[in-house]
Specification:
alpha+beta; elongated; 33% helix; two-stranded antiparallel ribbon; 132 residues; 6 strands; single chain
Length: 132
C-alpha cells in the first residue's frame, strides 16, 4: 500500500536542492483528489474510532419481545458495533484493508466515520481535508 501511495503522490511532489539540502514540497491543494488516501482514512476511522451513536427514545419501545426502552432514555451504541459487523464487511472485518472501500460497496449505516443522520459532522469535509 505504501508503494501505491508513493506512486500516486509523486506527481504532486516537487523536490529541490539548495546548498546540499534537499526539500520536498507537496501540493496539498491536489492531495484530496488522491482516492487511495481517502480510502486509507476511511479504514482508519472504521478500525480505530471510539465514537458512539447517541439517540433519545421518543416512545416506549420493545425490542425482540424482551427489552423495554422507556420514553425519554438515551441509547448509546458504539461505532464499533457497526464497523465490525461481519454481515456488512464480510470475513475480513477484523483486517485493516484500505482497499475495501474501493473494492466493495458497504451497506448504508455500516460506516459512521463522521457520524450519521442528524449527528453527521458538519465539519467532515474540512476535517478530512486537514487529515489528508
Amino acid at each position: 500500500m505504501l508503494e501505491d501511495v508513493r506512486t500516486v503522490v509523486a506527481p504532486l511532489l516537487t523536490i529541490t536542492e539548495k546548498s546540499g539540502i534537499v526539500s520536498y514540497n507537496l501540493d496539498l491543494c491536489d492531495i484530496t483528489g488522491v482516492p487511495i488516501l481517502k480510502y486509507i482514512l476511511q479504514e482508519v476511522l472504521r478500525c480505530y474510532t471510539n465514537a458512539n451513536v447517541t439517540g433519545q427514545v421518543v416512545e416506549d419501545t420493545v425490542i425482540e419481545d424482551r427489552f423495554l426502552l422507556k420514553k425519554g432514555i438515551f441509547v448509546f451504541m458504539p461505532h464499533r458495533s457497526f464497523h465490525f459487523n461481519p454481515k456488512s464487511w464480510g470475513p475480513t472485518v477484523d483486517e485493516f484493508r484500505a482497499r475495501r472501500f474501493l473494492e466493495t460497496k458497504h451497506p448504508r449505516g455500516a460506516f459512521l466515520g463522521f457520524g450519521g443522520g442528524q449527528g453527521l459532522c458538519p465539519g467532515r469535509f474540512f476535517a478530512q481535508n486537514q487529515i489528508l
